[in-house]
Amino acid sequence: MALQRKTGLGKGLGALLQNEDVQMPQRAEANDAGAKEGSGGAAGSINFIKIEQIAVNPFQPRTDFDEQALRELADSIETQGLIQPITVRQRSKNEYQLISGERRLRASKLAGIEEIPAYVRTANDQQMLEMALIENIQRENLNAIEVALSFQRMIEECNLKQEQLGERVSKNRSTVTNYLRLLKLPPAIQAGIRDGEISMGHARALINVGEVDKQLFVFQEIVDKGLSVRMTEILVRNIQQQSKPAKAPVGKQLDFQYQKIEDDLASRFSTRVRVNLKNSKGKGAIEIPFDSEDDLSRILELLDW
């Protein structure tokens, strides 16, 4: 028999379950009444559970939640009710732990809802971690660093190999490896990825730069100049090819003034620029190397050619 409810949940769930043959969500207390001590809603069922009885998921891979988006979701829940149930596991008679749906849970709290519909599942800690990760990757668009950290946790805490992890999250091994390699980048760059200053494409290019100081230099160029992924790849390639700049002849080392000109031009053209002095009177030449016709076109564009 369908449970008739008139609560602050709104009409969302009820509107979807008009068919009298469909079992409406039951109160957790109702299920508890006929269960053994320590059990609650039947695994696989949908129950209305008091929010105060739901503990957050300690394995939640997402750390940042957009407050404005939460407020908008809360407004929607106030009007329409929570349409999509969260998923929990039962720890004791009146105690549950969230598996997935933390945004929905947080927004329901903001909306002042006292109880919400939830799927009750049986899951151990490893399954909790895996389900939380997969649910977030598929629905919450984790940033690349959060994904990488979650992958690392699954490998370390669930004793998975990269191939096994790939199977769990439906990604090939090379994709998993690329995410994990992000964690080898300097903290400042990881923060830039997390905060959306650079994309995953930029990060993949930076991984190919060996030295930390050069990685930080390229990162700053991306942020300051708004370099595209393609321009970043060209800059990285030029740095790699010219990692050992030619030494100036003895007695003709560049003084500070000329070195600064080199650095400023290198920054402008996103490639190493050489100032070659020919004699003590200051005669010389400026050399701007290019890697391809496209690279030459890019440089000529900057020169307003």
TrEMBL record:
Stored SMART domains: ParB
A matching Pfam family: ParB_C
ParB-like N-terminal domain mapped to chain residues: 47-137
Keywords, ordered alphabetically: Chromosome partition, DNA-binding
Similarity annotation: Belongs to the ParB family.
Protein name: Chromosome partitioning protein ParB
Organism, scientific name: Sphingobacterium griseoflavum
